[in-house]
Write a structure and sequence with these properties.
Number of domains: 2
Strand order of the largest sheet: 1-2-4-3-5-6-7-8
Low-confidence stretches: 153-160, 279-286, 461-465
Number of helices: 16
Order of helices and strands: EEEHEHEHEHHHHHEHEHHHHEEEEEHEHH
Distance between the termini: 81 Å
Helix content: 40-55%
Shape: elongated
CATH architecture of the largest domain: 3-Layer(aba) Sandwich
Largest sheet: 8 strands, mixed
Radius of gyration: 29 Å
CATH topology of the largest domain: Rossmann fold
Strand content: 15-25%
């Protein structure tokens, strides 16, 4: 828990994660609080320092002295970001928080690296349902006496407000728990916030972003519930038409709260886009420090498995790998050993050795030297069979990224696009290696034929010739 004073306004934030990690700022929407993005905090805090703010006038934050506007929210958050970090941040915004995030990216693009927006308000016009049934109550609340009357009647009108709010907020087959629903409902009807709710309702309408999205340079993932009856899908059509650098995803069986209604797929999309570890429960999470993952991600750009991967994809792939360091001559893998490990040489080299019966016992023949960026063990990864060769660290040792088959399978399940690219890159590297081996064998055959043709008494023979 933390409180910050920005331009004279006291702002409350839920803080998680390591202090020296990249900052991720979470921005809630209308009639809400930091809790609106709580399902994502645990995942994000594995890689980021998370600040989930209460916007001024909401939750535990102080109300603005002047009338609330979306640009004013953006200015305050920009100042908060400048005070907390010197590096670009990741923004995660829900509903009105998405609109505020876009304003931040338009006004202060240098502060924002990427955004994840959940059902963002674009046009400022909410659904017809909201405008007919909910907004009149909000407008009345602007006036203190009427607001107190509405708040006083709320305990006696729970069933009525439930019947009004649920169709506007949640899908028919929503997966939200009763506890989360009650907490969100309590935030939406928190006493003393009638004025800010009314001001924000009009602030969104006055901040129509249509015609401005083409100006955005910041890449973003935009997630929408297919049954959103608060911010209608017509706003998603504006995003698709105008925003060049956007990844738009629609989630079935979710309304305006996909992070609560369909948490698993929402977190998967988020983790994939931000390069976070896989989150399937069948494997453990990555324990690599952030700086190790960052170095490995940069290295993978020039590796056999990193071809055509974006930085986010390389970061996520790096998070799935174990990093092992070997000194010169160390045994990395023994012949006939069962294994499902793919190895990517990050530094040094790996020598692939094959036992040679024609030489002294214990001696091996060098088949190949695997250099930085190259892979070995792809056959073991694919079929889990026993290794046909021995692997040892080269003369300068070896730093190796190790990808297990269970990790790759989990990646294919969680992020099919990335998983398929990795498999394709492995297959391509294997095909090139086989093509080279065939070429070398052909060259050897040609050399042997040449020797036999020049000296028929040499006794050298090849194949069936």
């Amino acid at each position: 828990m933390a409180t910050y004073t920005i331009d004279g306004v006291r702002i409350y934030a839920r803080e998680e994660g390591r202090k020296n990690a990249q900052l991720a700022v979470l921005i809630h929407g209308w009639s809400s609080s930091w809790y609106a993005l709580s399902p994502l905090i645990d995942l994000l805090s594995r890689r980021f320092r998370v600040l989930a703010v209460d916007l001024p006038g909401y939750g535990n934050s102080e109300r603005l002295r002047e009338r609330t506007t979306i640009p004013r929210y953006a200015d305050l958050l920009a100042e908060l970001i400048r005070e907390q970090t010197e590096s670009p941040v990741v923004l995660v915004g829900h509903s009105m928080g998405g609109m505020t995030s876009i304003n931040l990216a338009l006004q202060y693009p240098q502060l924002i690296e990427r955004m994840v927006l959940l059902c963002p308000t674009i046009s400022g016009h909410l659904s017809t349902y909201i405008e007919l049934f909910i907004s009149p109550i909000t407008i009345i609340e602007r006036y203190p006496i009427a607001g107190r009357i509405v708040s006083g009647l709320e305990p006696y009108m729970v069933r009525v407000t439930d019947r009004l709010m649920r169709p506007a907020s949640f899908a028919e087959r929503t997966g939200i728990t009763q506890a989360d629903y009650e907490r969100l409902r309590a935030d939406a009807r928190r006493p003393g916030q009638g004025r800010v709710r009314a001001e924000c309702y009009w602030a969104m309408r006055e901040n129509d972003l249509r015609g401005r999205l083409h100006q955005l340079e910041t890449p973003a993932l935009v997630i929408w519930g297919a049954e959103d009856n608060t911010v209608p899908l017509r706003d998603a059509g504006v995003v698709a038409d105008e925003w060049r650098n956007v990844d738009l995803r629609i989630i079935p069986k979710a309304g305006h709260w996909p992070q609560f209604e369909a948490p698993e797929i929402t977190r998967r999309y988020l983790a994939s886009y931000l390069g976070l570890p896989v989150i399937t429960t069948s494997i453990e999470d990555s324990s690599n420090p952030t700086e190790v993952v960052s170095r490995a991600a940069a290295f993978l750009a020039n590796s056999d498995v990193g071809n055509r991967l974006t930085l986010q994809q390389r970061t996520r792939l790096a998070a799935q790998c174990r990093v092992r360091v070997f000194t010169a001559g160390d045994l990395i893998a023994a012949v006939n050993e069962e294994s499902t490990d793919l190895m990517v040489v990050q530094d040094g080299s790996i020598e692939v050795l094959f036992p040679d019966d024609s030489e002294m016992p214990g001696e091996s023949r060098l088949l190949q030297t695997v250099l930085p960026g190259q892979i070995t063990g792809e056959m073991s990864l694919l079929d889990g069979a026993r290794r046909s060769a021995e692997l040892r660290a080269g003369p300068d040792g070896a730093t190796v990224l190790i990808l297990r088959r269970d990790r790759l399978l989990a990646l294919l399940e969680d992020d099919p696009q990335l998983g398929n690219l990795v498999v394709w890159n492995i297959a391509t590297a294997l095909a090139l290696r086989l093509r080279l081996a065939n070429w070398q064998q052909q060259m050897l055959a040609n050399e042997l034929r040449s020797v036999r043709a020049s000296d028929p008494t040499s006794g050298v023979s090849y194949g069936n010739d």
